[in-house]
Amino acid sequence: MKKQDGIKYYTVKYNALKIPQNSPSEKLLKLYVEEILPMYMPGKDRVKLIPSAAQDQSLISIECFNDRSRSVKIGEGCVDVEEDTSGKVLRLIGMLNMALLASQIPSGTPSDEINKYDVLIALIKSQYKEISGEDMPPDILKDISKGIHIVLPHAAPIALDKTDEYYRLTITQLEQAA
What we know:
The protein is α/β, with parallel strands linked by helices. The protein has helices at 24-40, 92-103, 118-132, 163-177; strands spanning 9-15, 47-52, 60-65, 73-81, 148-152. 33% of the residues lie in helices and 19% in strands. The longest helix has 17 residues, at 24-40. A hairpin with a 7-residue loop joins β3 (60-65) and β4. It is globular. Strands 2-1-3-4-5 form a 5-stranded mixed beta sheet.
Protein backbone atom coordinates (compact mmCIF):
# COMPACT_ATOMS: atom_id res chain seq x y z
CA MET A 1 0.00 0.00 0.00
CA LYS A 2 1.42 3.35 -1.04
CA LYS A 3 1.68 5.92 1.73
CA GLN A 4 -0.28 9.11 1.04
CA ASP A 5 2.12 12.08 1.10
CA GLY A 6 1.71 13.27 4.69
CA ILE A 7 -2.08 12.96 4.58
CA LYS A 8 -3.53 11.32 7.67
CA TYR A 9 -6.89 9.64 8.08
CA TYR A 10 -8.84 9.40 11.32
CA THR A 11 -11.49 7.13 12.78
CA VAL A 12 -13.34 8.72 15.67
CA LYS A 13 -15.28 6.36 17.94
CA TYR A 14 -17.50 7.42 20.80
CA ASN A 15 -19.23 5.49 23.54
CA ALA A 16 -22.92 5.50 22.61
CA LEU A 17 -23.76 4.28 26.12
CA LYS A 18 -22.31 7.49 27.63
CA ILE A 19 -23.20 9.86 24.79
CA PRO A 20 -26.82 9.00 24.01
CA GLN A 21 -28.24 9.08 20.50
CA ASN A 22 -29.94 12.37 19.52
CA SER A 23 -28.69 14.08 22.69
CA PRO A 24 -27.27 17.61 22.50
CA SER A 25 -23.82 16.14 23.26
CA GLU A 26 -24.07 13.75 20.29
CA LYS A 27 -25.20 16.60 18.03
CA LEU A 28 -22.18 18.65 19.13
CA LEU A 29 -19.86 15.69 18.54
CA LYS A 30 -21.28 15.06 15.05
CA LEU A 31 -21.10 18.72 14.07
CA TYR A 32 -17.47 19.01 15.16
CA VAL A 33 -16.30 15.73 13.60
CA GLU A 34 -18.37 15.76 10.40
CA GLU A 35 -18.35 19.46 9.55
CA ILE A 36 -15.65 21.41 11.40
CA LEU A 37 -12.73 18.95 11.25
CA PRO A 38 -13.15 18.32 7.48
CA MET A 39 -12.75 22.06 6.90
CA TYR A 40 -9.27 21.84 8.40
CA MET A 41 -8.52 18.39 6.99
CA PRO A 42 -9.93 18.46 3.46
CA GLY A 43 -10.02 15.33 1.38
CA LYS A 44 -12.29 12.38 0.80
CA ASP A 45 -13.06 10.27 3.87
CA ARG A 46 -10.32 11.81 6.02
CA VAL A 47 -12.46 11.65 9.18
CA LYS A 48 -15.03 8.95 9.98
CA LEU A 49 -17.32 8.95 13.02
CA ILE A 50 -18.49 5.65 14.49
CA PRO A 51 -20.67 5.08 17.57
CA SER A 52 -19.84 2.07 19.71
CA ALA A 53 -21.96 0.34 22.35
CA ALA A 54 -19.08 -1.76 23.67
CA GLN A 55 -18.85 -1.68 27.47
CA ASP A 56 -15.07 -1.18 27.38
CA GLN A 57 -15.18 1.64 24.79
CA SER A 58 -13.59 4.88 25.98
CA LEU A 59 -15.80 7.95 25.95
CA ILE A 60 -13.86 9.05 22.85
CA SER A 61 -11.10 7.27 20.93
CA ILE A 62 -9.38 8.34 17.75
CA GLU A 63 -7.16 6.22 15.55
CA CYS A 64 -4.78 7.93 13.12
CA PHE A 65 -3.73 6.20 9.89
CA ASN A 66 -1.27 6.84 7.06
CA ASP A 67 -3.62 5.55 4.37
CA ARG A 68 -7.23 5.88 3.22
CA SER A 69 -7.91 2.17 3.69
CA ARG A 70 -6.91 2.60 7.36
CA SER A 71 -4.51 -0.34 7.31
CA VAL A 72 -1.33 1.50 8.42
CA LYS A 73 -2.09 2.75 11.93
CA ILE A 74 0.07 5.51 13.37
CA GLY A 75 -1.37 5.88 16.84
CA GLU A 76 -4.45 5.99 18.99
CA GLY A 77 -5.70 8.53 21.50
CA CYS A 78 -8.41 7.64 23.98
CA VAL A 79 -10.11 9.90 26.51
CA ASP A 80 -12.37 8.78 29.32
CA VAL A 81 -13.63 10.16 32.62
CA GLU A 82 -13.32 8.21 35.90
CA GLU A 83 -16.54 9.50 37.41
CA ASP A 84 -20.11 8.91 36.29
CA THR A 85 -20.82 11.54 33.65
CA SER A 86 -24.61 11.12 33.57
CA GLY A 87 -26.26 14.52 33.50
CA LYS A 88 -22.95 16.39 33.46
CA VAL A 89 -21.84 18.86 30.86
CA LEU A 90 -18.86 17.32 29.07
CA ARG A 91 -16.23 19.44 27.39
CA LEU A 92 -16.37 17.25 24.30
CA ILE A 93 -14.41 19.57 22.00
CA GLY A 94 -11.46 19.60 24.41
CA MET A 95 -11.68 15.82 24.82
CA LEU A 96 -11.80 15.33 21.05
CA ASN A 97 -8.81 17.62 20.61
CA MET A 98 -6.81 15.68 23.22
CA ALA A 99 -7.60 12.36 21.55
CA LEU A 100 -6.81 13.80 18.10
CA LEU A 101 -3.43 15.13 19.24
CA ALA A 102 -2.59 11.89 21.07
CA SER A 103 -3.48 9.78 18.01
CA GLN A 104 -0.70 11.49 16.04
CA ILE A 105 2.00 10.21 18.40
CA PRO A 106 3.07 6.81 17.07
CA SER A 107 2.09 3.89 19.29
CA GLY A 108 5.15 2.19 20.70
CA THR A 109 7.31 5.32 20.74
CA PRO A 110 10.06 4.58 23.30
CA SER A 111 10.01 6.82 26.39
CA ASP A 112 13.44 8.23 25.50
CA GLU A 113 12.05 9.46 22.14
CA ILE A 114 8.74 10.87 23.38
CA ASN A 115 10.31 14.35 23.58
CA LYS A 116 10.09 14.51 19.75
CA TYR A 117 6.41 15.17 20.33
CA ASP A 118 6.77 17.89 22.98
CA VAL A 119 4.52 20.32 21.11
CA LEU A 120 1.68 17.78 20.88
CA ILE A 121 2.19 16.74 24.50
CA ALA A 122 2.13 20.35 25.70
CA LEU A 123 -1.21 20.87 23.91
CA ILE A 124 -2.61 17.64 25.41
CA LYS A 125 -1.51 18.73 28.91
CA SER A 126 -3.11 22.13 28.39
CA GLN A 127 -6.44 20.56 27.38
CA TYR A 128 -6.23 18.13 30.32
CA LYS A 129 -5.77 21.03 32.75
CA GLU A 130 -8.60 23.02 31.15
CA ILE A 131 -11.04 20.10 31.29
CA SER A 132 -10.20 18.63 34.70
CA GLY A 133 -8.65 21.57 36.52
CA GLU A 134 -5.65 19.36 37.38
CA ASP A 135 -2.21 18.72 35.92
CA MET A 136 -1.89 15.62 33.76
CA PRO A 137 -0.06 12.83 35.62
CA PRO A 138 3.27 11.93 33.96
CA ASP A 139 2.49 8.19 34.05
CA ILE A 140 -0.07 8.63 31.24
CA LEU A 141 2.85 8.76 28.79
CA LYS A 142 4.82 5.97 30.48
CA ASP A 143 3.58 3.12 28.29
CA ILE A 144 2.12 4.09 24.93
CA SER A 145 2.64 0.74 23.27
CA LYS A 146 -1.08 0.56 22.45
CA GLY A 147 -1.68 4.28 22.13
CA ILE A 148 -2.27 7.03 24.65
CA HIS A 149 -5.09 6.41 27.09
CA ILE A 150 -6.08 9.47 29.07
CA VAL A 151 -8.45 9.08 31.97
CA LEU A 152 -9.64 12.37 33.40
CA PRO A 153 -10.32 12.27 37.15
CA HIS A 154 -13.54 14.25 36.64
CA ALA A 155 -15.19 16.69 34.32
CA ALA A 156 -14.77 20.20 35.72
CA PRO A 157 -18.14 21.87 36.18
CA ILE A 158 -19.36 24.50 33.74
CA ALA A 159 -21.16 27.45 35.30
CA LEU A 160 -24.50 26.94 33.58
CA ASP A 161 -27.76 25.70 35.02
CA LYS A 162 -28.78 23.77 31.94
CA THR A 163 -26.70 21.26 30.01
CA ASP A 164 -28.81 21.65 26.86
CA GLU A 165 -28.24 25.40 26.90
CA TYR A 166 -24.45 24.93 26.94
CA TYR A 167 -24.53 22.50 24.02
CA ARG A 168 -26.91 24.68 21.99
CA LEU A 169 -24.63 27.69 22.51
CA THR A 170 -21.54 25.70 21.53
CA ILE A 171 -23.25 24.23 18.45
CA THR A 172 -24.38 27.72 17.37
CA GLN A 173 -20.83 29.06 17.75
CA LEU A 174 -19.40 26.17 15.71
CA GLU A 175 -22.00 26.59 12.98
CA GLN A 176 -21.18 30.28 12.77
CA ALA A 177 -17.47 29.46 12.52
CA ALA A 178 -18.17 27.04 9.67
